Amino acid sequence: xxxxxxxxxxxxxxxxxxxxxxxxxxxxxxxxxxxxxxxxxxxxxxxxxxxxxxxxxxxxxxxxxxxxxxxxxxxxxxxxxxxxxxxxxxxxxxxxxxxxxxxxxxxxxxxxxxxxxxxxxxxxxxxxxxxxxxxxxxxxxxxxxxxxxxxxxxxxxxxxxxxxxxxxxxxxxxxxxxxxxxxxxxxxxxxxxxxxxxxxxxxxx
Length: 205
Prior knowledge:
The protein is mostly helical. The protein has helices at 2-16, 20-31, 34-56, 59-65, 67-89, 107-119, 122-134, 142-167, 170-176, 180-204. It contains ten helices and no strands.
């Protein structure tokens, strides 16, 4: 019971802390649609299973102990965030007639964006690996550990779905629609900043 409470508490605190996942869901919900935001949240929840899977297979211990491997992972994640950020920074003002139109992003595209944002997020790597190495006991049965993974994934889905529902409300979207390109650029700068911090930390470590 103590282990379960620790997993739940640490997970909730980690999930609600701001990061690339939050930025991506917020951006897609405000500028695209509620559906895009929720699908991005679903992709994020699916991405959690990448970290849970390699941790349960023992690769998480290797990542934790190998500075080179972890640095490479961080650099790949940083490159992806910077690439997304640059794309958003290049956003241009929409024509008046196009303000009511939503930028094209397929359901699969929203899912993929959420999945990659989380799967390549070193913050989630550190969180999941540390949680299973330090909180979950080696004697804990595999089904119980998989249940913890399911809880972590569900917590991400629920929280980011709530974020998507809030930021995609009609009132919020209508007020911000005319500022679409500035919002895109702001979130782009945020992602580039996240990526730059990750890359800098990797190189200087």
